[in-house]
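Sample intake sheet
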Amino acid sequence: MNLSCNSANYKFVHYRYLEAFAVAKRIISVFLFICIFIGVSALGLMKTSRNEAVRSDTGSGNLRILVNKTRGTIYDCNMQKLTNNDFEYKAVVKPEKSAIQKLNNVLSQDKFAPLYERLSKGNPVLADVPWELSDENIKSVRVFKRYSENQLAAHVIGYTDGSGKGVCGIEKSYDDILSQYDGECYARISTDAKGTVLSGCDIELFNDTSRSKGGVCLTIDRLIQEITENAMISCGVEKGAAVVVEVKTGEIKAMASLPSYDCGNVEQSLNDPGDPFINRAITPYSVGSVFKCFISAAALEQGDYSGFAYNCTGKETVNGTEFNCHEHNGHGKLDLEQALVNSCNTYFIKLTEELDPQIMLDQLVSFNFGLPTELAPGMISRSGVLPELNELTPAELANLSFGQGKLLATPLQVAMATACIANGGIYNEAVLVKGTVDESGVLQPFEKQGGGRRAVSEETAKKVRQYMRSVVENGSGRGGKPKNGTAGGKTATAQSGKISGDKEVLRTWFSGFFPAENPRYVITVLKEDGSSGARDCAPVFRKISEKITLLYNIS
């Protein structure tokens, strides 16, 4: 059990409401986004309506109907489609009796009625149909749907406006590349001088959508993304995030945020109180006891603190401020490994008092805390907050020692720092995009940057990995232990400073790696309004790790 879960006993000395303030700022940002979005969407919808309207080709005496517009494809790391993956049927229908009857037979009345109103006035229509219809006065075509009904990685992918321009996510970051592969499918129908559809004429179809094979390739693994999203939902994470990272490369294999939204119909989520447009994987939160792993590493880098002994009596007083341990009677005498396994806050308070604070902060910066990460042009994982040296009063240092106070970090930051420990102390920058894809569907990989940088020694990383394995084997992380393998990790239950009803909202975490002996993947899970990391997030880690182990036969 984490020491940070007894929220009534911890005093944060002026900084208690920092995250609450950050949440308020996010709400304001979302409100402004909605206002702008409504205006942009209205314009976009107007454009869509005009584009899909039947209109005359200039000086030709023909009617032209836009059937579908396509855009470059976004692929996963295995060149499996994340967009343009599903199909639907469209039908151009002439105002002829046989065609009208066939359309009526396959559509519900609420969908047929507005189409019939136009058809009865002698106008052709474009209809969504469940399958290909056969009739001389109907031209059916199977077309790509930009987004799937339950679109994977929605916050990573983003969405487009009514004109087809990227609004956010990869759609916006690589709009110039994806739009290079735009295409149209349209129908043409002959008319007389008055614009009346000529009876007996064919519906001509023109299709220029084959170039949509070009686009962008991500490091996301479609199967791991699906496993991650399903695990979060099945474990009851209604608001939260999960990130899966490949240890050796820093490649992001899954990035999930809940609640999500429908990329193809974002309007329906505008009034959702769950703020589905926030990508929680790259949003800063209070961290809690997961941070003790990195404090441990910082201590081991300054000296051999593995044997540092402290007798936990259940409380510790710092400059008149009392900090209580979740174990009210105390844990007794602990060394560093035992303190991490038991998540003893008071131990870490005393440990950080032994350290040079500037060297400790420099070490935490080497894990990328307090720094932003650009995942794609304009797609930034925020820097969070790491206190400066002049802010580290004794009480603030005590809070930092167990991941509270001013400290804020994103799930991605925590995942990458955990990956550094799992990778023998080598920190790799997070990678989300592998390269571009040409018109023939061939990947053009980006030039790889230099190898990772050493953040901590191999010996330090090895010790912290062993400590984290002990947490899963013997401590609060037991719920994260996969049935088909081994793992190391750490739970956290952090105070947010935000009150809901008569209770403080807690941020719960689990961050770990698997297999324990030779780590392949790191998984970090956050629940925004949880009860404890052990109950909320460890089971998500376990489900994801078990399924990835089976999927890729990891031993």
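Comment: The first strand starts at residue 55 and ends at 56. The first helix runs from residue 18 to 52.
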